[in-house]
Amino acid sequence: MKKLLTITLAFISSALSFALTDQEKLLKLAQDKTAFYGKDFKASYSIVQEKPGQGKSVTEAIMYRRDDAGKWTILVTGPAKEKGKGYFQQDDTIWFYDPTDRKFTFTSAKDKFQKSNANNSDFAPQKYYTDYSIESFEKVKLGKFNCTLFTLKAKNDKVDYSRLKIWVTDDGLVRKKEDYSLSGQLLRTTAVPSYQRVADKSGDISIPSKMLITDNLRGVKIGDKIQYEKTQITITNVSFADQPASVYTKQYLELMSAK
């Protein structure tokens, strides 16, 4: 009986050690909100990059994601000189397709998307809980939003940034993110001012309407102020309808670029 009690107490202690704290639950929810398991995701993306003193450039694209399979496809639809270019990811491998020479080349999640301030990884599910540990947290106010501010440290070297700060509302939506180097230098700031609710058979799903990425390393002094490069991403025409399996192949990019 004593041995059985000891085993039972050990089991309970082990189970409690794996129980998530409220903060870990919220961080995991924030991660889960960026993924769409059990369904396909399709949307139109408008990526507007602004370089101080050089004006703006616009890239239009269609995004397809099948998170269950670890796949996504991006087809660039504009401007005309960029039309037909595309990206295809399967698991941790990303290919870039250029219709000019009809070749695929390897790229990485850390690389910039179409020379903007967005990384390729910004278009995929985020791994706040899986790849980072919580260094600290506090309740803060971000504009009109009540948030938990997490300071996170990477668990591995596969991530884009060694440290993050993210502002998360109680419903698991990230409203702001700051990316830092290991030494603590601020590299990028991402603001998510608004979300849209899209109907799905599993219930309404919150998708960012706009995201504004500021590159805190790329700036020029204009007058008395440093103005940084910025990229605004606008997401429209969101759909969770099933897509053909052929969409998630390199052959799909080759076919669509020929049209």
Describe this protein's structure.
This protein is mainly beta. It has helices at residues 2-17, 22-32, 250-257; strands at 41-51, 55-66, 71-78, 86-90, 93-98, 103-107, 132-142, 145-154, 163-169, 174-180, 186-198, 205-222, 225-239. It has a 13-stranded antiparallel sheet, sandwiched between helices. A hairpin with a 4-residue loop joins strand 9 and strand 10. The relative contact order is 0.17.
Helix content: 10-25%
SS field, number of helical segments? 3
Strand order of the largest sheet: 6-5-4-3-2-1-13-12-11-10-9-8-7
Q: Please state the overall shape, judged from the principal axes of the Cα atoms.
A: globular
H and E order: HHEEEEEEEEEEEEEH
Q: Give average pLDDT, whole number.
A: 91
Describe the structure concisely:
By secondary structure, the chain is mostly beta strands. The protein has helices at residues 2-17, 22-32, 250-257, and strands at 41-51, 55-66, 71-78, 86-90, 93-98, 103-107, 132-142, 145-154, 163-169, 174-180, 186-198, 205-222, 225-239.
What secondary-structure arrangement, pairings included, does this model have?
Elements (H helix, E strand, L loop, with lengths): L1 H16 L4 H11 L8 E11 L3 E12 L4 E8 L7 E5 L2 E6 L4 E5 L24 E11 L2 E10 L8 E7 L4 E7 L5 E13 L6 E18 L2 E15 L10 H8 L2
Antiparallel strand pairs: 1-2, 1-13, 2-3, 3-4, 4-5, 5-6, 7-8, 8-9, 9-10, 10-11, 11-12, 12-13
What labels describe this entry?
single chain, mainly beta, 259 residues, disordered N terminus, 3 helices
